[in-house]
Design brief:
Elements: E1 18-19, H1 36-45, E2 47-50, H2 58-72, E3 80-82, E4 88-92, H3 94-97, H4 99-105, H5 111-118, E5 122-132, E6 140-143, H6 145-153, E7 160-166, E8 178-179, E9 186-187, H7 199-202, H8 213-223, E10 226-227, E11 235-239, E12 244-246, E13 255-264
Keywords: Dioxygenase, Iron, Metal-binding, Oxidoreductase
EC number: 1.14.11.55
Subunit structure: Homodimer.
Length: about 290
């Protein structure tokens, strides 16, 4: 007997987009540091820019920590994702590999915001360091994270939020993240079955679980595109269902960030909705233990 799925995807034929069932903001103004204007903006646009989330000595320490992790991890560690040319693209589970990153998760400028947006206790669904080195860093195609987390990880509802903390300057020309504001209110089902161990290739170049060009064109015509730029230490908070992507970095200016995904403890993972088996733990934590 098949279970009900409010967000069917990875289908053999196209279907109409599905209006979102859940609220975007679960908490109120008295539940955390964000003002009502911040909460209203996040609800409307699906994202929030928070300058100065990490300041002072944290930034050089974190940049040094990236180098340490890259050097210490075995070359064949699955948590180390490389670009086709061999440079490091992502390092997964940095909050478990580094006490420093674990402290960032619990900063007053980070954890209370996640709790406020999601309306209670949260846990880390996924964490990674994204590296986009100069000249060789390739982009991330347009996608909704929730589509993957729902299809391949078994995340039941849209009650997760991402926090991308810039460790370097984000310029309009070095591969900074683009978002389609307002697109989080619609789930865009995708066509194409999930291959076995799809994550082996999708973490480098995602081809399954992405909207088609007609769908993307309509979304951009309706909502436009915004881009996250700014100084190191700023953070971009964005809803799990917001369409986003980035171009490649052909400049000599590297771009790196700490990427933290918070999920509500009331939204813990079940069996995948459109994949043969769950992805590994370093991509999708299946223990919903609240961050203390």
């Amino acid at each position: 007997m098949s279970r009900p799925d409010p967000y069917p995807t990875r289908l053999d034929h196209a279907i109409e987009p599905i209006p979102r069932h859940e609220p975007t903001v679960w908490g109120g103004e008295t539940d955390g540091p964000l003002t009502q204007n911040h909460l209203d903006g996040f609800s409307e646009y699906g994202y929030l820019v928070a300058p100065g989330t990490v300041v002072g000595d944290w930034l050089p320490l974190l940049r040094h920590e990236i180098d340490r992790l890259a050097a210490d991890l075995d070359a064949d560690d699955p948590r180390l994702i490389r670009e086709p040319g061999g440079t490091i693209r992502s390092i997964f589970e940095p909050h478990l590999l580094s006490d420093l990153v674990a402290q960032v998760v619990r900063l007053d400028s980070v954890l209370p915001v996640a709790r406020q947006l999601l309306g209670g206790d949260v846990y880390i669904h996924q964490a990674r360091i994204n590296l986009m080195p100069g000249f060789t860093g390739t982009g991330f195609y347009w996608h909704s994270d929730f589509e993957t987390w729902h299809a391949e990880d078994g995340m039941p509802a849209i009650r997760a939020v991402s926090c991308s903390i810039a460790l370097t300057h984000n310029y309009p020309y070095n591969g900074s993240l683009m978002v389609i504001p307002g697109s989080h209110q619609t789930f865009y089902p995708c066509v194409g079955a999930t291959p076995t161990d799809n994550h082996d290739t999708s973490l480098v170049a995602q081809n399954i679980g992405v909207p088609d060009q007609t769908t993307l064109t309509k979304a951009v015509d309706q909502y436009g595109i915004h881009q996250f730029t700014g100084a190191p230490g700023g953070a971009l908070w964005f809803d799990a269902n917001l369409l986003h992507g980035s171009g490649s970095n052909i400049t000599p200016l590297p771009r790196s960030n700490v990427f933290l995904v918070f999920n509500s403890v009331d939204n813990s993972l079940v069996e995948p909705f459109a994949a043969p088996r769950p992805r590994p733990e370093y991509l999708a934590a299946r223990c919903a233990r609240p961050v203390a």
